[in-house]
Structure formats: structure tokens, C-alpha cells
Amino acid sequence: MKKKHVMALFLGRSRAFPNGKPVKALDNRIGSSIREQFFEMLTGKSISDIDAYWARLRYSGRASPPKEIDNVDEILTEVSRNVSALAYVSGQSPEALSQQGIVVVYTLEAN
Amino acid sequence: MRLRQLRHLQHYVAMIMISSALVLSAIFSVIAYQVNQRVAVEDSERQVKDLMAAVKNTASAAIFSSNEAVGMDAVNGLLGTEVVYSVTLEGFGDDLGPGLKLTGIHKDGGAAMRTIIMPLESIFDQNDILGELRVTPNKRWVSKRTHTTSIPSILGLIFVIFFVCFVSAQAFKIRISTPLVKVRKALKNIRANSDKRLRLPSHLQLNEIGILVDGFNELLDETNAAFQVERELRDEMQEVQKHLEHAKADAEKAAQAKSDFLATMSHEIRTPLSGVLGMLGFALNDPQVSHKTREQLDIAQSNAKALLTIINDILDFSKMEAGKLNIEIIDFDLRKEIQAAVAVFIGMAEAKGLDFNVTFDEDVPLYVKCDPTRIRQVLVNLIGNAIKFTSSGGVNVQISMLELSRYTVRLCFSVKDTGIGIPKEGINKLFQKFEQADASTTRKYGGTGLGLSISKQLIEAMFGFIEVQSTPGEGSIFYFELPMGRASAEECDEKIQARDFHSHKLQVLCAEDFETNQAIIRTLLEGMGHDVEIAENGCVALDKLVDRHFDIILMDGRMPEMDGLDATKQIRSGVWKEQAIERSDIKIVALTANVTAEDRDNFLSAGMDHFLSKPVNEVELHKLLAQTIEELLAQGQALVPLVRATASELDTMFDVSQASPKETVKEVEILPNESLPEKLHSVFTDSLPQRINELIQAINTENFSELGRLFHGIRGSAGYLEDIDLQSLSEKLEILADQQNITEVRGLFDDFLTRLAPYQTAQKGGDHADNGS
What we know:
The complex is a heterodimer. By secondary structure, chain A is mainly alpha-helical. Helix content of chain A is about 45%, strand content about 10%. Chain A is built from five helices and three strands. In chain B, the strands form five sheets. In chain B, strands 5, 6, 7, 8, 9, 10 and 11 form a seven-stranded mixed sheet that branches. In chain B, helix 1 (about 1-65) packs antiparallel against helix 3 (about 140-190) and helix 18 (about 675-700) packs antiparallel against helix 19 (about 705-720). Chain B is elongated and about 195 Å long.
């Protein structure tokens, strides 16, 4: 997957993988540092911009941002359990994740 | 009128200002509208761009997330403003998301303008263009905006323009019109000679009006200067004119003095001279005078006559100088007049042993109309000169005809001598005043040098000319040509007949102070059979006029105590010494040596009827008296029939008359009235055979001028004989002869001879009677 696809999936632009399989994106808790870090790295914009984007869409009444999940364990459980679930984590090695039955589709490298 | 025109000029200016204000307003309004429109368009675009920028993030978000609701939100937000006409939001779509297209038009409509396109990139990737936003500004908004901004600016502009124009018009009025009116008023008040100048307020002195006024002032200065010069000139002119008038008055006075002097001279010299001549004439008639004394008297008479000639010359010359020479036109017998004029020279020529001939060409008419006295004067002068300057040979006088028409004739008079002749250089001087051929002539032959000058002027006054041809040593020909009128025989005949005797006796009062003249007048009048009373002056004449009846008064001009003019005025007033003058309208004849035209006027204005110049011309006196007799008879006055004294009785009368004039009247012989026609009758019958011979000859030779002359003569005689048939026939023949119609003349000639037959038989009868007695 390309960064562009990742961005489209997490920002509500796209709801399916390039191969056509539907995707349900999951978000970390609002206010968490990982969320701030993730969107900043992904879009190059601050988290407030991202929030403003979502606010603008929500203002019109028909916005569907990714579902918020409070901790990493719950996220991991949900992803491993649901085939179409997509989420982002930090500090987890790909091997450990794959042991839990989680496939890594994109790795965001810090500059 | 002009002021109104000037006001009109102001109106004109106002109109120009108003119309230019209108035009300017229109132009500036259009410009202002367009500027405002452009501003509005730019404004609309700017506003639209601002709006687009404001909705850009929303629109981008909508496209990014393919969210129609959000998109519509943005579109409707844009359409909520009036400046936007239509909005299109388009997402192109790609593999990550579907396309999107949203369109909207402003709910109140309007019109589209240039579309503004804004590309919409992905919110999260500046390089990724996901769609675009297209917005069209609304034209209606632009128009509305233009209107609202234009109206105040246009109104302001119009106000400014009108204000500027008004100010300009006022400036024009203040700067030009008003000063012009003032200048005009000032000019109106300025009169010639006044020292006033046009004054202008200082603010006007430096512009064109000031220049104009300066020009006016200069003009005024010049005009005043010119007036001044003119006034001075006028004064000078008046001065000069005064001098001239004085000079003229002086000159006139001098001329008057000269003519008075001449009048005096004529009187003072001619009066005694006529006395001398008259007395010499009487003395020569005295048979008791011895032969030697008679010769002496002859010499005295010829000298006196010469002196009279010289005086007459000088007087004539003076009269010509004064332009007072009068030419009279009367009918006269040419041959008789000339023969009388030359008679005096026959003796003179004989005495010098010269031939003297007077020749009339045959065709010269017998009777002409001209001034016989002047012709005579010129001829006497020329013949006198010819005889004077000729010592051997002769003098020939010839009268020939140059032209002849029915009423006029042109004659040439020539006097040819074999005398000393005149050198060429002398000929030019000949006719000038006081000039003779050369100075030695005066010493040798004497003379005043006036004769030829006078002759020339006389001839020219009669519309003729005089010339001379001369060869020194061989002789000279003086000749002059004169145009004359033709006269009929009877007019001349009548006069000649009348001269012989008067039909009635007149009572004549003669006022004359000079004793010799008294005697001459008395002799002349009594010789004609009239009663004469002499008065020494005007007073005596008036006394006598009151005392008894007179038919005519002969009045000398100058007399002591009362002169002729005063006496005449007194007579015409009708009262003398408180006594009535019975015949205040009595005929008064001036008898004087003063014969200038001026004198004549004086006499006539004093109330005189006629004038006779002294020495008295017997013929003229006779004519005048005959005329007076006719007039008196016509007025019904009883006159004593004429008596005629014999020559010897006349002398007796002369002697006696001094003491008692009334006793001189003696009825010696009463002349029968029928004597005159009878005499004429016999003259006519006597000449008839010769006339008929001449007529026949003229017809045969077809000499028409001769024929005309002969018929003319017979016609005159027939008129006198009161033979009307013969007169009309002669007249007809005369006309035919003038027309040169010989056949008609021949046709009538037998008839003519038949008419003449009674006179031929009468002649024969007369002869028989004579024979028988």
C-alpha cells in the first residue's frame, strides 16, 4: 500500500483496499500522543487541522470518522478479530503483531 | 439699440456656456459611468474571489471526502450573496474516490459574467488537484453597483461644470461686456473739443479692453489735435476770407469808380464834341460861309469826327473789358448800310489819289439780320487803316457770299489794299490791344492800336472771325466772315419808308442842360415837325409838365439841381409841388451819353421807357417818335396831323425858337396819307419790266438762288401792295425755286405773268397820263 491509500482510508476518503476489500479504520483515543504523532507523520499537518477537517464534515451532518478506541490492547484485539479492521500502532514489532494474526500493510517511518 | 445688441452678446455668451456645459456634462457622465462600471466589475470579481477563498477549505474537504452535503453547503454559501450568479463545484474523481459535480444559480436570477475558476487541491497534498470551483459574478449586481456609485459622481460633475461655466460667463461679463458698455457710455459722453478721456478701473487697464481704451484715447487725442488744427485753419480761412472780401469790395469799388469815370468821360467829352460836330454841321450848311472858311470847317469837322472815333474806340474797349458790350440783331439793307459806311472814304481815297471800289457779289442777299452798327464800325476801321497805310494803288472792298440757306447766310467781307503791308512778326501782334505792327508805325501813322483789337472782339461777339494776309511792300487783305440771318424786304423797306416823314405832330418836352445839345435836339425834332419845349433841368421839366400837356419827354441823364433819374421817379409818383401830374405814365426816353448796360438798368428801374445815346442818331429818334405816335393813336389820343417845314424855314425856326418855341409851328403842307403806297406802287411798276427780264433769264439758266431772291422780293412788294393773290403765288414760286423744281416753276410762271399784267398796264396808263399832262 501507498501512503496515499493509507491517508485516504484514515481520513474518510476511501473505505476499501486497493484490491476492493472493504476497510473499517480504527482510531486511537482523541488527545493521545500516538494519534497526534500518527496524523502528523501521515499528512504533515497538525492534529488540530485534522480535527478541523473532521469538524467541517461533521458540521454538515454526515461525517464518518474512524471509530475511537481507548487503548492499544483493545485495538489489537479488534484488528485481530475483524478481518476488515485497520488501525495504527506504535512500538510493536511486525513479528509480534503477526503472531497475534495482524497483518502490517504500511510502516510509517520517522524522518 | 447698440446697448441691446451688447446685451444680446451677453445672452450669446450665456448660451455658449450653457450648451458647452451640457455637452461637457454628457461626455463626462458617459466617462464617469464607464469608469464606475469597470470599478464595479473589478469589485465584483474581487468580492467573488474573496468569497471563493473563504469557502475553499470547505469545498476542498467536500471534494476530498466526496461529501455532497458539505459541497452543497459551500455552494449555497456562495449563492447566498448577490454578487454571485452561478457556482459550479466539481470533483474530478480518481481511484480513491468518486467524482462530484454540484451546480447552483442565484435564486433571483441575473446575468452571467466572466467565470472565475479556482482549482481545488487536496487538503493534505498541495500537489494533488482534486477538482475546481467555478463562480460567475452577477451582472445585475454590477449594474446596480454602477448606478449607485455613478449618480452622485455624475451629479457632482454636472454641478462642477455648470459652476465653472457660470463663473466663466460672469468673468466674461465682468471682464468684457461690462467694460465695453462702460466704454460705450463714456464715448457717448465725450464730445468734440472736450479734453475728457476714457478712464477704466485698474484691473481692466492691462487686458485687451485696456488696450482698446488706450487706442480710443489715442484716437481722441489725435481727433482733438485735428480739431484744433481745423479750428485754427478755419480761423485763418475766415481771416483770409475777410481779407478777400475786403479786397473784393475794394476791387469792386475800383471797378465801379472806373466805370463811373468812363461814364463821366463819355459824357464830358462826347457831349461837347457832339456840340462841336453839330455846330460844324450847321455852319457847313450855311450858304453864306465863304469858300476858305468852309474848307477850314471841313477840316475841323473831320478832325472832330476822328476824335469821336478815338473816344468811341476807347469806350468800346472799356465796355469790352467790363463785358458790357452789347450786340443787337436788327433787319437792315446790307448794301445801303455799307454804302453809307464807305461813303466817307470815297473823298479820302480821292484826296490821296487812290482807287476805291466797293463790290458786292451778285448773289449776296439784299436784306440781312445782324448788327449793322458793329459791321459798319469794323469796316470803317479796316478801310480807314487801308487808306491810311496805302500811298499808291487802291483799296478794294468786296462782299461775297459763302453759304446760303433759307434763313441764314454766311458772308465774307474783305478789304484789300496795295499799302506797306505787314511783316510776318507783326501779324501776330496785330489784333492785340494797344499793339501795332511795330513801334515806328505809331510815330509815323498815329492811332491808338485799339481798332483791330476791338474789331476782332466785335466780330467774335457776332460769332464770326477775322484774319489777315499780307506781303510787306505789296499790300494786305483783311477779311472777316460773319453768319447772319436773312431778312425780308418789307421789314427793311418799312423802316426806310417810315424815316421819311411822321404822320402826326407830338408835343415834346426835352430836359437838357447843355445849350448846344438843346439847339441840336430842337433842330432835329422841329425838322420832323414836332413841338419842342426845352427845360434846363429836372425841376423845370416838372414845372412845365404840371403846367401843360406833353406827349413824350426826352430826358438827359445828368442835369444840375435834379437829374433825369430823380425827375423820372418824381413824374412816376404823380405829384409835384402838391400838384397832380396829369400824365404820370407819359413816355420818358433817356437821352444820354451814358450807355453802359449798368446805366440802362438804372434808367429802366427809375421808370424810363427807352433810351437814346448821344450824339442822337436821327434815324433812331425818328423811329422812336413814329412808334410813340402809333401807340398814342392806338390809345385814342387826339394828335395834330403832321406838318413839314422847308429847309429854309427850318433855319428860321431855329433862330426864332430860342425866344418862343410855340411860334415855330407852321402848317405848311399836309402830306396826304395815301402818298406812301402810291410811291411804292410806282417804284414797283417802274422796276417790273427789268424784274421780269431777270426772272426769265434766271429760269432759262436755272439759277435757283437768283430765282428765289427775285420771287422773294416780289412777294415782299406784293405784301406791301396788299395784293394777296400775287403774294401767295410768289411765295409758292419762291419755295419751288428753293426746292430747285424747275418744271413746276415753269408751269406756274405763265399764271404769274398774268397776275402781273395789271401793273404793267397801270404803268402804261401812268405813262399815258404823264404824256398827256
